[in-house]
Design goal:
The chain is built from 7 helices and 5 strands. Helix content is 51%, strand content 16%. The protein folds into 2 domains: 2-95, no CATH class; 98-162. The protein has 163 residues and is of the alpha/beta class.
Length: 163
């Protein structure tokens, strides 16, 4: 898929970036599940990417939202990244583990893989308390974004992991 995006960017003499988050990033870092239904990310140039995503979906007969920016509402400040793909016209990267942890905690969706992903990240980052978890989240998000649901979500996960 990245090769196809790179080819389309090159054909239009354009350069692009894609930051992968969510389940696809968890698979890249941990290989902790077999698949994800889509790739969540932030991409630029947005207009061209949207057209390429649509074109590739038609070519491969897959869903048009196979790559989407639906997670942008949960995005905070990204500092450290892991390079995933470097093509002639496309750079793909993923945020650091602590960023992914913060993002998953902020979203805290009960009907998703967020709980499993946060458990994996708590282990990987060796987080032992809610206070440690909140400090990591606040590196990437304003304190006001850390809602009570995030604290309850973390309390349940960290308490259960200590048993």
């Amino acid at each position: 898929m990245f090769d196809k995006l790179n080819e389309k960017l090159a054909k239009d003499n354009c350069h692009g970036e894609l930051c992968i988050v969510g389940g696809a990033a968890m698979i890249l870092h941990f290989n902790n599940r077999m698949a994800t239904k889509d790739i969540d990310g932030i991409f630029k140039p947005t207009k061209q990417f949207r057209q390429y995503i649509f074109d590739i979906a038609d070519e491969l007969e897959i869903n048009h939202d196979w790559l989407n920016d639906g997670a942008k509402g949960f995005m905070g400040k990204i500092s450290d990244v892991l390079d995933v793909y470097n093509g002639s016209n496309l750079k793909v990267y993923s945020p650091s583990l602590d960023y992914l942890f913060a993002m998953k905690c902020i979203s805290a969706r009960a009907d998703s893989y967020d709980k499993q992903d946060v458990e994996t990240l708590v282990k990987a980052l060796n987080i032992g308390s809610i206070e440690e978890a909140i400090l990591i989240i606040e590196k990437h998000y304003d304190r006001a974004k850390v809602l009570p649901k995030t604290k309850y979500f973390l309390d349940e996960i960290i308490s259960n992991m200590k048993k």
